[in-house]
Amino acid sequence: MNDETWAPHVTVAAVIERDGRFLLVEEHTQFGLRLNQPAGHLEAGETLHEAVVRETLEESAWSFTPEALVGMYMTHFGKPGESGATYLRFTYCGSVGAEPENRALDPDIVRTLWMSVDELRAASDRHRTPLVMQCVDDYLAGKRVPLDFVQTHAVGPRLADKTGSKG
C-alpha cells in the first residue's frame, strides 16, 4: 500500500461576461503564456465563494460578485493506474464592479483582457486547459445552479474528535 495520501486539488474559476466579452487573464505557465479565467486554489479556512472572489481580485484586480455556479469539473493528469494529480474545479459566473481596483496582479499574471467568444475559440491553442472553453460554453448554454447549492459547514474540534473526521 502506498503511504502517500492522495488528495484532489480544489480550484475555483470565474466566468465574467460584459457586453458580449469575457474577462480572461494571460499568465506565465510551464508551457508558456496561456489564457485562463481568473482562477486559483481554495485556501485553508475559506469557502468556495470566498475563494473565487479573492482569486478574481488577485488575478484581475476586478471585484467579483458570484451569482450562480456554472458547473463542477474534475480533471485528472497522470497515467492510468497512477495517482497523478486530480483537480476539482468549481466555476462561478457573476459580475464585476465598474472599474478594477488599483492593485498589483499576482506575479504570474501578465495582463487581463476581454475577449469575444469567437476570439476565445480562435485562441484555443493558448488556453491553459480545455476547461477554459468548456466553462464558457456551459455558461452560454445557460447552465446555472443557485449559489446555495454548495453548502459550507464548519465542524468544531469536539464534533471532529467524535466522528474521526476533520472536515
From TrEMBL:
Its EC number is 3.6.1.-. SUPFAM superfamilies: Nudix (SSF55811). Its cofactor is Mg(2+). It is an enzyme of class 3 (hydrolase). Residues 7-137 form the Nudix hydrolase domain. One of its GO terms (molecular function) is thiamine diphosphate phosphatase activity. It holds the Pfam family NUDIX. Keywords: Hydrolase, Magnesium. PROSITE patterns: NUDIX. Coiled coil: none annotated. Monomer. Belongs to the Nudix hydrolase family. NudJ subfamily. This is Phosphatase NudJ.
